[in-house]
Amino acid sequence: xxxxxxxxxxxxxxxxxxxxxxxxxxxxxxxxxxxxxxxxxxxxxxxxxxxxxxxxxxxxxxxxxxxxxxxxxxxxxxxxxxxxxxxxxxxxxxxxxxxxxxxxxxxxxxxxxxxxxxxxxxxxxxxxxxxxxxxxxxxxxxxxxxxxxxxxxxxxxxxxxxxxxxxxxxxxxxxxxxxxxxxxxxxxxxxxxxxxxxxxxxxxxxxxxxxxxxxxxxxxxxxxxxxxxxxxxxxxxxxxxxxxxxxxxxxxxxx
Length: 255
Prior knowledge:
Layout: H1 12-18, H2 24-34, E1 40-44, H3 50-56, E2 61-65, H4 69-76, E3 84-86, E4 99-105, H5 116-121, E5 124-134, E6 138-139, H6 142-152, H7 177-180, E7 186-194, E8 197-201, H8 202-209, H9 213-216, H10 220-233, E9 237-241, E10 244-251
Parallel strand pairs: 1-2, 1-4, 2-3, 4-5
Antiparallel strand pairs: 5-10, 6-9, 7-10, 8-9
Helix pairs in contact: 1-8, 6-10
C-alpha cells in the first residue's frame, strides 16, 4: 500500500467530519444483488467507518480492516458493537475465513494491483459478492469549478486520483469493473450509479479538500496557501455532484 494511501490518518477527525456518509439505497442495492441475507461481511480500507455503519446498523456482522491506526481509532468511536476491527492492509490479509460479502468504499485504488483479484477471491465465498463503491465529489457549477482550478493551479494540476487501468472516463464500464470483466475469478459484473447532489458550506468544502490525498501530499505551508486561495473564490454555499458509482461481482462457484 502506497504512502499516499496512508496519508489520511493525520486528518482522521476531519475525514469523519467532512466526508459524506452512504445512503440506505446503497445497502438495498447490494442486498438485491446478493439475492438473500448476508450475515457476515469483510470491509477493506474502512477509514473512519462511513460504510461500516451502513452495513452494521442493518444487522450485518462486519469485520472492518484498516491499515492506519488513527483512522481505525476514529472508526471505533462511531460503529456499533457488532463490528470487529482489525488493523491491517489488504495485502496483509491471509486466506482463512471467507465471507458472503467483501466490500471496499472509495479505497480499492490504494491496494496493490499485483494479485489483487485472486487475493480478493480468496476472501469471498463461492457465489458470494464483491462490491466496490465511491466516486469523486465535483463542483456542480462550471464557473466555480473553473475558479477553483485556477486557484489551485500553482500547487496542483489535478486533485483526482488517476484511473488505475487507464479506462477512458466516458467508457461504459469504469474501473474496477473494467478489470473485473477480465478476471477469471468473478462473473456477473454490474455497474450502477446512485445519483447524489450535496450542498456544502464553503468552509465545509475546503474541509473536504483537506481530506483529499493530493492536498495531503503538499508541504504544510502550501496546503494552507491553497486552501486559503480556494476559499476566497467560493460562494457561501457550493453544490457538489457526488454520485456513487457501484460495481458488483459474484465469485465464481466452480473455482
